[in-house]
Write a structure and sequence with these properties.
Blueprint (H helix, E strand, L loop, with lengths): L2 E2 L6 E4 L7 H4 L13 E2 L5 E21 L5 E9 L6 E6 L7 E21 L7 E11 L2
Antiparallel strand pairs: 1-8, 2-4, 3-8, 4-7, 4-8, 5-6, 5-7
Length: about 140
């Protein structure tokens, strides 16, 4: 059974937050399931989110909802186990719209993921994400 793998014990980090305003645009808004809140990155050539899970997981899908005009044309999902270096799992190509987009992921067992957003549709390289979901199975 596939379900959301991000839990309260999952540690997350992001590349930047617009004007360092974490209260209004911070990383917690990626996972709060609220329609009115979002993570808003600051400007830059690429943006990223790192997730460290409390246990090993098997990822099957990635779901992302951008704000149209502030999305990414190309994304990369990387993962690792323990202290290993990150290695590429899959590249994905989001559309520039407001819809929740689902990207299939080749089966990968990891406990750390990095989602990188490149080639932003915004001139300044900002990315706005309302929902980020990692779907799959927890490993025992």
């Amino acid at each position: 059974m596939t379900h959301s793998l991000v839990c309260p014990e999952t540690v997350s980090r992001v590349s930047s937050v617009l004007n360092r305003n974490t209260r209004q645009f911070g990383k917690k808004h990626l996972f709060d399931q609220e329609e009115e809140t979002c993570w808003n990155s600051d400007q830059g050539p690429s943006q990223w989110v790192i997730l460290e899970f409390p246990q090993r997981i098997c990822v099957s899908q990635l779901q992302i909802q951008f704000q149209g005009g502030f999305s990414s044309r190309q994304g990369r999902l990387e993962g690792s186990q323990g202290s290993e270096a990150l290695s590429k799992i899959v590249d994905f190509y989001p559309e520039d719209n407001n819809s929740l987009q689902t990207f299939p992921v080749p089966s990968a067992e990891v406990d750390r993921l990095k989602v990188t957003f490149e080639d932003a549709t915004d001139f300044f390289g900002r990315v706005v994400i309302y929902h980020l979901r990692v779907l799959g199975e927890k490993k025992v």
